[in-house]
Design a protein that fits this description.
Layout lengths: L7 E2 L2 E2 L3 H13 L2 H26 L1 H8 L3 H28 L2 H20 L4 H15 L2 H12 L5 H29 L2 H22 L53 H9 L2 H31 L4 H31 L5 H22 L3 H17 L1 H11 L5 H30 L4 H4 L1 H43 L1
Antiparallel strand pairs: 1-2
């Protein structure tokens, strides 16, 4: 009779608490290979959002130390996003033509250098210049992460996996607000920047050593399928339910040759000719516009509007973060399940509901001056806003041929980063203009700015409803293009 393995009981693996947690995490994420993909790609997104979260958390210290206004603080976030919008275009082309993991490693290392330079800034001008370098480095994250996800994960499971990967954005923003704020308050905003630089350097090494480059066109899906321990059927055998049943593709947009060598202009023209893609690009940009303004000024607003200390706010942030995180993860998993049951428009309907619900919840949450009344509404609003992202990102992969994923994401990133670039400056300018006498110190200006910016957020729901009509045709066109161009 075979003896149980050493360190086991009754033939079952036990190990220490850390090993048990690691095994459970791997099982939850779909196996060790998929868990590695989720953690590393999610880490890349986490660092990007942690930067802006830290900038917002250290806002009071930055304004006092460098003698700057709300508008100048917003310009710091605007500078990095603006440069990122420009740099994302050539980086999207590289994502379709070169080794994507290597590209992500290089840009993550540059990101670390930019954060370190910012930490040493003796003046506002120096810090502003460091943000320009930072923007060029962060531009690769969007196109590369989306393109890699498409080739790691089969269509039927993308929203669920993207829910875990996009959770990195929320975790990073929360960590930036908490850790960055605590470090800035206790020591200096400079140490918060140095911490992010060190974390980015570690991630760059981990990406290089642990993340393999997948084969394009879905040829590598099998290497990252959930194993028997996950309790699910292997994804490679799952029906690609995103291909709308019985819907004919748009024959004038079916590709018959590999578009990898297309010029940037030709690729952009094709991508903008996809009706659903145009609507999703606008909706995504408007959602990130609000999120960028909110995360830049939320700490300043909460301290002044609710009259609480930054330390007290730090104890409340996890409540909002947990709700938003739950919304991100559950939205991806539930929409994949609904899709497998034949609800082909679920990746469009869920974001539409999420955007409208977020706007309706934020209005009273921002208006109330009692933190006890406002906190649950703000937390639910953040959760509703987070619900939109996983199905929205999965839908964009559904409607674009695989060899154009990098350029499609760079095109979206241009508008998204442009929206993120102007959002903090616009929020800050509006807050300064609408505050009135004493408005800056009381938070009235920021409250009014938040309320105005909720209007375009609610309009996203109408945009997504309009996408329901074109989505099935565009999915069928992308599937046929992938088949025909391979042939």
């Amino acid at each position: 009779m075979a003896r149980p393995a050493e360190g086991s009981h009754g033939g079952r693996r036990r190990g220490g608490p850390g090993q048990v947690v690691a095994r459970e995490a791997a099982r939850l994420l779909g196996g060790p290979g998929r868990a590695r993909v989720v953690l590393l790609l999610g880490g890349a997104l986490a660092l990007n959002s942690a930067d802006t979260g830290t900038l917002g958390a250290a806002a009071n210290q930055l304004e006092a130390d460098l003698g700057i206004s709300h508008a100048q603080l917003g310009l710091l976030a605007t500078a990095s996003s603006g440069v990122g919008a420009i740099a994302s275009v050539p980086l999207g082309v590289l994502a379709d033509r070169t080794n994507r993991v290597r590209l992500l490693v290089i840009t993550t290392a540059l990101w670390a250098a930019a954060m370190a330079v910012g930490g040493f800034a003796p003046s506002y001008g120096w810090l502003l210049l460091s943000r320009l370098l930072l923007g060029a480095a962060l531009a690769a994250a969007g196109p590369v992460v989306v393109s890699l996800t498409g080739d790691y994960i089969p269509p039927a499971e993308r929203a669920g996996v993207l829910g875990w990967i996009l959770a990195g954005e929320l975790i990073g923003a929360g960590a930036g607000l908490l850790a960055g704020g605590e470090i800035a308050a206790a020591y200096s905003w400079r140490y918060a920047f140095f911490l992010l630089a060190a974390a980015s350097a570690v991630l760059s090494v981990a990406l290089w050593r642990l993340l393999p480059e997948p084969a394009r066109g879905g040829a590598g899906w099998g290497a990252f399928e959930p194993g028997p321990e996950s309790g699910r059927q292997p994804a490679g055998r799952a029906q690609a339910v995103v291909a709308a049943r019985g819907v004919a593709p748009a024959s004038d947009r079916v590709l018959t040759a590999d578009p990898a060598g297309w010029s940037l202009g030709r690729a952009a023209a094709y991508l903008l000719a996809i009706p659903t893609n145009r609507l999703l690009i606008v909706a995504s940009a408007m959602g990130y516009f609000f999120f960028a303004g909110m995360r830049t000024f939320i700490v300043v607003f909460a301290v002044r509007h609710f009259g609480i200390s930054q330390a007290a706010l730090g104890a409340l942030v996890p409540v909002v973060g947990v709700v938003a995180l739950a919304g991100t993860v559950l939205a991806g998993r539930l929409t994949d399940r609904a899709l497998s049951r034949g609800h082909t428009s679920v990746r469009i309907v869920v974001p539409a509901v999420g955007f409208v619900a977020a706007a309706l919840l934020f209005v009273p949450g921002v208006w109330f001056t009692s933190v006890t009344l406002a906190l649950p509404l703000i937390a639910l609003g953040a959760g509703a806003l987070a619900v939109a992202n996983p199905p929205l990102d999965a839908a964009r992969l559904d409607i674009v041929p695989g060899r154009l994923w990098g350029r499609a994401e760079s095109l979206r990133t241009v508008l998204r980063l442009a929206a993120e670039a102007v959002a903090p400056a616009i929020f800050g300018w509006l807050a300064d203009q609408l505050g009135g006498a004493g408005g800056q110190s009381s938070g009235v200006g920021l409250r009014n700015a938040f309320l105005i910016m909720l209007v375009p957020l609610a309009a996203n729901g109408l945009i997504m409803i309009a996408a329901r009509r074109s989505y099935p045709i565009d999915v069928a066109t992308a599937v046929e293009s992938d088949r025909a161009s391979k042939g």
